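Why does this matter for the project? Reviewers at the last site visit asked to see concrete outputs rather than summary tables. In response, this paragraph embeds two records directly. Each consists of the residue sequence and, immediately after it, the corresponding structure tokens. Nothing has been edited or filtered.
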Amino acid sequence: MRIRGGGNEKDTQNMKIKLCLLLAVLSHVAVLPGFAAQAHAQNRNPSLRPLAELSEALQDLSSRISPSVVQVVGTGYGLQAGDEHTGANVLSKERSSGSGIIVSEDGYIMTNAHVIDDARSIRVKLNGQHNGQTSQFDAKLIGKDRLLDLALLKIQATNLTPLRLGNSLDVKQGELVLAFGSPLRMDNSVSMGVVSAPARQLSEDDPRIYIQTDAPINPGNSGGPLVDVEGRLVGINTFIFSQSGGSEGIGFAIPSNVVRYVYASLRKDVHVYRGQIGSFVKTITERRA
């Protein structure tokens, strides 16, 4: 190092020593955070590492799924009891809320039919900003199927983040799942549980099959996704069995394979066609026998 100045040789030597000391201190300060992080990692209890890894994995999964989940609000009008003395009914504004999932980049959204039943207008709220777009949109009802309790909506938006559809036939009992949605209008919420039964039939006369889960589901979760640890949709949360009105660990989701079929049918034909075998009933008389 060459130092230029007006001092003598002794001053120059002192300045060299001071600069060397300063550089040593600065280099020590620069590497100190690295040593601290390494020491913290070494001092972490090894038995807690699996929990920390699970927590980080769930955080990552949640951040990837949230942009594909929306809040759905339907507004309509209904009759309510008015003055008890007159017995007249009053026409009043009603609002229902639930959740939905983005199934295409160009704004198609699946939800439950009961979320938007009797709604005169439908509003969809995205989770945060999507490529600078507004977070709220007016939605158009493309079609719905009341029996399967599914509906397809469309908003004027592009470059959205669709949720991957999994194969509900691969779902196993005890599998870890997460439920996303807007319970009690608290948008962008997540809860965790396991699959209690991969194919639950509620009664012998009801051909519909549901995925049963103990993941906490409350009013407002309807239409939201039930996802596996890979971030794939395995079902749409639909209803719960409850004596208190809140979650008691018995929730039901429409399997993803049914969602896939209904989405394709509603988008193409605005209607869900069911299979027919062409048979009919006729009385067998003695002559026909």
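We now turn to the second protein, recorded in exactly the same manner.
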Amino acid sequence: MWISPVAISSSLVPDNWRYLYNLNPAAGLIDGMRWALLDGPSPGPQLAVSLVSLIVILISGTVWFRTAERVFADTI
């Protein structure tokens, strides 16, 4: 709720923080839904940045899990 624009519009985020804010994968998806349902502003580049960050997080998480998988159960 605090980092994703669920309750507030992402247009309230200052321009100098916008790129960092768009790294949140949920931000582009939520603004895309808001655009589709409520006819808000188009999320164009914001959606692309969110998609790229989502792919990076997915790949890095998968790589980390594959390397930690062998000893993961032993440490818990």
